[in-house]
What we know:
Structural class: alpha/beta
Mean pLDDT: 79
Strand order of the largest sheet: 15-14-13-16-17-12-18
CATH topology of the largest domain: Rossmann fold
Number of domains: 4
Number of helices: 21
CATH superfamily of the largest domain: P-loop containing nucleotide triphosphate hydrolases
Amino acid sequence: MSSKIDLPEGLKAQEIEGRGSLQPLLKKLKKYSFQGYVKIEVPDEYEGVVVLKDGVPRNAVLYFLSDDESRKGLPALQRLQTLDTYENLQISVHTDLDVEKLMEEIDGELSSGGERKKSSSAAQGQKGLLQIIEESDESVDIEEGEIPEGVDERFPERYSFNDFIVGPNNRFAYAAALSVAENPGESYNPLFITSRTGLGKTHLLKAIGRAYLVNYDDRRVKYVVTSQLLTEIEEHRKKNEMAELRKKYTGLDTLLLEDIQSLADKPQMQEEVFYIFSELQEEGRQIVLSSDRSPEKIPEIEDKLISRFKSGLVVDILSPHYETRKKIIESKVEKLEEDIPEEVVDYLAREIKKNVRFIEGGLNRLSAYSSLLDESITLETVKDVLSRYLDKEAETEGLKPKFMPGRSYIIEEETGSSEGFKLINDISPDKKKYILSRMNPKRIEEDYHLSNSEILWLTDKNSDKEETIPPNLERLSWSLEEKVKEKDVVLIDGLEYLISNTSFDATIQFIRHLVDVVSETETIFLVIVNPMALESKQINILEREMDSISYVS
């Protein structure tokens, strides 16, 4: 070990090595209320110690061998936890020593401020990250300090690491994201996070972005959905301005790119993305990617891109276990400030098994019901109000929501997501579809290959190439009333755009009218909205008018 702290040898109880050794060891030591310390080494890179009292990590110190710097307490625990991914990890367990004295020595040795970054108070008696992640499956409070102006608008507080519930299903991805947030461009580059819809990929990407902007206020960070990037590439190509776009992206310090699987079967776009990646990586700039599948399972994508994706670290997020789901529900209930009985929490945790996004949507629906009718939430209420909402989470199992003729549905998803169009694409091909969208119709046709569809561009600008319709509610109402009689499916994409051009009250009256018209037909009415663009009470009103399908983590 380093000479900075004179470690007592005590009794060396065990020696182990290799990737994945640390977490099982700490779990075992917790079980037996171990007293002593665990020495952790990655040769020529890191040396560290975790001090345990009654099996619980109480303090830690970590030395960075390459630059002769160190940290203690929570920052050390955060970094040590990620060392479990190193193949050459070496661990030894020591007991029969004065634990209290060792903890005092760690605090005393580094109290003069020799740490690499500002430390959090994770000294004696305070839970550390390792204990929390390994045993309680909860996230840890990470001090953010003063929030610079504009951060909350770009990366809302609900996407912080503090609000991410950790469990066995996402522990490794969470640790990797923390490491990248702590050491941009150094730990894993790129970090590739994969999971099915609604399990926390977006949360981790935005938590990383938020951490960067809070801790490095001059850092140039961009979060973008791949479909948005592809639209930018297409527009700049048409204007012969690709050099400008490349400069914009290669000048970033961090690129957070969502849904990278959208690159599939787009060779020209892949070349541009490869160029951006290469430039960023060569400069040591951090890249974080997300996908609904692992790199090698993305179809029709060049080998050199797959190689880039896998050159850092690939982590996956699985469906949460019951205990983790319950903690997620309890966390969200606390934020809603609703009095929800334990039996209701337990029921929701058992019913909502695959998609975390269902949890928040379901709770919002219950909260709205309770508030509007001034009724307490009971188990019977839950079963009644959420009977359709909890219909076996059909879409997360490869099935799809069963859309009923004459019914209206609100699809909640973030801007740039594609779940709404994926759903309409799965409706029977022979059904006639009428679509109003903020997205250029040409792009919709290229990306989703919708059959039997009439697509209008919802914009106040004229176009020589596409049929457009302005955000005028009177004209839209007249047009849609006619289309409801002719078409099997009517879709409005971008309700927030209508609201911004008129008002929420006027738009909700427009929606209510269409819902009534649809109810007397065999037509399916769908509305896509980004809930982050609206107030929660506005979302609650929409959810009262229409059945809700949520794709927001």
